[in-house]
Design goal:
Elements lengths: L4 H11 L3 E6 L7 H9 L11 H5 L10 E8 L17 E2 L8 H19 L5 E4 L7 H7 L4 E2 L5 E2 L7 E8 L18 H5 L17 H4 L8 H4 L5 E3 L3 H4 L19 H4 L11 H8 L9 H14 L6 H10 L3 H14 L5 H16 L4 H19 L1
Parallel strand pairs: 3-8
Antiparallel strand pairs: 1-2, 2-7, 4-7, 5-6
Bound molecules: iron/sulfur cluster.
Iron/sulfur cluster (SF4) binds next to α6.
Length: 385
């Protein structure tokens, strides 16, 4: 039995999919030159699917594809409750990490839709994907008419702005394609101007290596240019979304799984430094922001403590610098101590100097040593001033 587009739309609404669109399974070759140039310029994050041909051609990963169904789920942009008041400084997760991991939510929605469609036509085949799949999510969603691609590179929908999660499924079912929506940014450059690390290049492209969201997800030392700019954010970045005129007033709470727990998405920073693997999994394991593991979040929490000038963290940071087994975490603690130390902190200076000597003896790499040197210089300068 053939399935009509209207049937798919109605089923998607029953399942709780907020927006759905359809496009052909034709290739996306028109993206090739831009993606190659981005890679050649060193502007990719490395999180992309590695095979460019597969990213551009649905037929390489799916036998005889006919259409692609694109879906969007709206996520909240404001919290209804505040975290409990305590004496500890708090960090924050970007909105795309509120609630349980959106990959899981989108997968469940698509699985449910596929099940129902297969019930109508047992010959129907689907390949669902979210974020880490072969295809370029925003390009598919744009071609399927869900919204336009803004100068910040995000898909912007009429109803929900860019506060949407995207997923898509390649299928052997044939549907009439929807119409792609051209960019509606006009003369606006708010996101480009607001990005504190100039990651947006102005032509709709970005240097993903500079993006603060990427910087919070690396596993080594965070780049120096990004450390102060992340403020108290320990995962992701929302700046280019918050300034966008198409997002003003957009705040949808349509899915209970996306409801943020204020104490988790604005977590106390200091306890993050002592988290066991078990506590990390229990506390943060369900969030999208935990996908890179505990270490980047701990590193970012240390940087946030320095950015918030939280001197109450000094004893813990000294302990971390002295005893943590991970060089990146020790060096980041040294960096934070260098920023938090005040004139008269001879003890911290002594700690930094002996930790530096230890790193040299252990032949730690130059970037690690650099953080100690900068911190020592900073405390010495303060002492002499
Ligand atoms: Fe486009 Fe302005 Fe939104 Fe950036 S802030 S995506 S330029 S409308």
């Amino acid at each position: 039995m053939s399935i009509s587009k209207q049937q798919v739309i109605e089923l998607s609404q029953q399942i709780g999919i907020d927006k759905i669109g359809f496009t052909t399974a034709d290739n996306f070759e028109y993206l090739r030159a831009g993606l190659e140039a981005q890679k050649a310029a060193g502007h990719t994050s490395g999180f992309e699917h590695p095979n460019l041909d597969e990213r551009l051609n649905p037929a390489l990963t799916f036998d005889h594809p006919k259409s692609i169904i694109a879906i969007a789920l709206a996520y909240p942009s404001r919290m209804k409750e505040s975290p409990v008041r305590t004496n500890l400084k708090r960090g924050q997760f970007a909105r795309a990490s509120w609630g349980i991991d959106y990959h899981q939510i989108l997968r469940e929605k698509m699985t449910s839709l596929i099940k129902q469609l297969k019930g109508l036509d047992e010959t129907a085949r689907f390949k669902p994907m979210v974020d880490t799949g072969e295809l370029v999510d925003v390009a598919v969603a744009n071609r399927a008419g869900l919204g336009f691609i803004g100068k910040n590179g995000l898909l912007i929908t009429k109803e929900y702005g860019s506060f949407v999660y995207l997923g898509e499924m390649i299928t052997n079912l044939e549907f009439e394609a929807d119409t792609p929506i051209p960019c509606q940014c006009g003369d606006c450059t708010r996101c480009i101007d607001a990005c504190p690390v100039r990651a947006l290049l102005g032509n709709g492209k970005m240097n993903a290596q500079r993006c603060l969201s990427y910087q919070t997800q690396t596993k080594g030392l965070m780049s120096d240019f990004a450390r102060k700019k992340t403020r108290n954010v320990i995962y992701g970045c929302d700046i280019c979304q918050l300034v966008c005129p198409f997002n003003q007033g957009k705040d949808f709470h349509l899915h209970k799984e996306m409801t943020p727990d204020p104490d988790k998405v604005r977590p106390e920073l200091l306890p993050i430094l002592s988290l066991s693997n078990h506590d990390f999994k229990a506390g943060f394991g369900q969030m999208a922001g935990s996908w890179r593991g505990k270490k980047p979040l701990q590193r970012n929490a240390i940087i946030a403590l320095a950015n918030l000038n939280d001197r109450s963290a000094i004893p813990k940071l000294r302990e971390v610098m002295d005893g943590d087994v991970r060089p990146v975490i020790r060096a980041t603690a040294a960096y934070a101590l260098g920023r938090l130390a005040k004139p008269g902190d001879e003890e911290i200076l002594g700690d930094l100097q002996s930790a530096y000597q230890k790193e040299r003896t252990e032949k730690s790499d130059a970037l690690i040593l650099h953080d100690y040197q900068v911190a020592i210089n900073a405390v010495q300068r303060q002492k002499n001033s």
